[in-house]
Design brief:
The structure holds two protein chains of two kinds. By secondary structure, chain A is mainly alpha-helical. In chain A, about 70% of the residues lie in helices and about 5% in strands. The relative contact order of chain B is 0.13. The mean pLDDT of chain B is about 90.
Chain lengths: ~325, ~350
Amino acid sequence: MLKYLVRRLSATLLVITLVSMSVFIIFAYLPMDPARLTCGKACTPPIIEANRHRLGLDVPVQIQYGRFVKGLFVGREYGEGAAKFECPAPAFGYSFNKHECVATLIASAFPVTFSLAIGAFILWLLLGVSLGVLAAKRQGKWQDKASTVFVLVGISLPTFISGILILLLALKFNLINPIEMGRWVSPFTNPLGWAWNFIFPWITLALAFAATYTRFTRSNVIETSSEDYIRTARAKGLSEKVILRKHTLRAALAPIVTIAGLDFAGLLGGAIITENIFNLPGLGRLSIRAVLIDYDLPVILTTTLLAATFVVVMNLIVDILYAYIDPRVRVA
Amino acid sequence: MTSPFLEVKNLTVSFPTEDGLVRASNDISFTVARGETLAVVGESGSGKSVTSLAVMGLHNRRSAQISGEAILHLESGDVDTISAPEDVVRKLRGKSMAMIFQDPMSALHPYYTVGDQISEAWGLYNEGSKKDGIKRAIEMLELVGIPEAAKRVNEFPHQFSGGMRQRVMIGMALVNNPSLLIADEPTTALDVTVQSQILQLLRDMQKEFNMAVILITHDLGVVAEVADRVCVMYAGKIVEQAQIDDIYYVPDHPYTIGLLNSIPRVDQLDGRRLLAIPGQPPSLISLPTGCAFRARCSLSHLVPNNLCATKVPDLDEKLTGHFSRCHLTEAQLSKARTAPGDAL
């Protein structure tokens, strides 16, 4: 097991390194000049060159990458003399538009995105799995048909429609204060306020995801129910309740761990549409602003890298978790 | 002969489908006593498994239409597993009647250790901790001949070979000392060498627990090794029923004669081709009128008045204790079995 872990961890590190390199190279060769973007109307060639130097963009790309990696571990200083400023480790870069170290921006955006993702995740798992099990057990009955309708609506309704509908309803019934909307409330100081802040975005995201999980759970439960070992469980004299809970669900839900993990990881990188609709200052909004409005390359680089890292790390976690669920994939 | 433990009377199981009603087993009656092994023989689709699943109450009550009776003579009184409520039948499963299946590769849950699975079965009908259950599981594994049982009890099904898994299945089925064991093709998925070990084990276990055993198989070689009595099934009906020796020495139905002739034998290597029964079994949705075997039977022309095509033969006692569903006279049948290949 230890050997397997070491092997998987080094592979994960390698993937993250490669992703960061590719992202770095792509942004280094984009036809946009970050130095030109630092000064706007006040730009003159000497200022641009000076800023290029301050940003560390006047050296070859491999040295830039080396500095970037070094900055991740020991922090980084920009400029010299009176204009000198520094970002402590992990230094992902410095955003000239926001006049802030990228790590600081991430640190304030990530809790928002994480709160959004975790709540939606729990909600859609509960909703999707229980609806799926219900539909499978009542196959062909009205419960099954109702769940099919739910699945169709959920899958075909994009979040920018369902989100706006939910937002409109919430505003109409005065469930949220439009001025307060999106203001960050810490779950540690005010858990109720935090939950209320996120409840509508959670519902929006959960609706979009739960449909897939309902369909997946339903077909998996039906398929597993016809397995030989379920017949064995019945022949033993177990009650239907125990068979479902202990035998069918255990096998039917195992594959869901894989997609759930990856879906969750994907959300951690930022839910761009939902965050924008509900004015949540999370990673998704940070990246979309950086891309569309600010051309803020250090931020784009960092959010991309983070999103990739979440997926790769979550993949590792899912694989390890899966080995605990399914003994057949355990390594000897 | 002791009084029967299980009495199946006029059991009929059919499944409504879009193409019509599938009559999987039709008017089946037999008995089996404790200490006795009844073999049910027939080719795929003859209704062997369907019948036994009906006795166990394992058919989906919504998709199967079942009539007739399957009476278990328990110490606490008689129970008809066909008409009794599901809750009553469920509490007989695993305790009074147990079943093992054809494919031990897929019949055990892949996510639980064999110890967990056996102790789960034990815990259903016994008071005791999880630890007691595992202890009992180890005992059962030792009983069915699994070496290093104390260690292997914590292993998962995929760590066992096919034969060992079938042993685990047998151990699990017997953990609550059932009075009736239904073995549905228990050796079909196994190597020939492993097959005879499993049959030997079943025989030993039958003695140990004094069980009634129903052995379902399509392999007449298996039947010869373990059965006391035999039911031959064809197209959902019993066509012949007799003591084991009678089936082999005086087969009394053209289908049984055909089956016996089609067994390859090492003592008859005279270059003849194997005698196969021509044709296919009929569709269970549209059974032919008269005898279901008629189209494949090479003797039906001997029956006068085209009787085979118009009248379903009854299951008659043609010889003492030997029932056969055929219009042919005993003299005609006796001629057929002495000259295999000529008449057939």
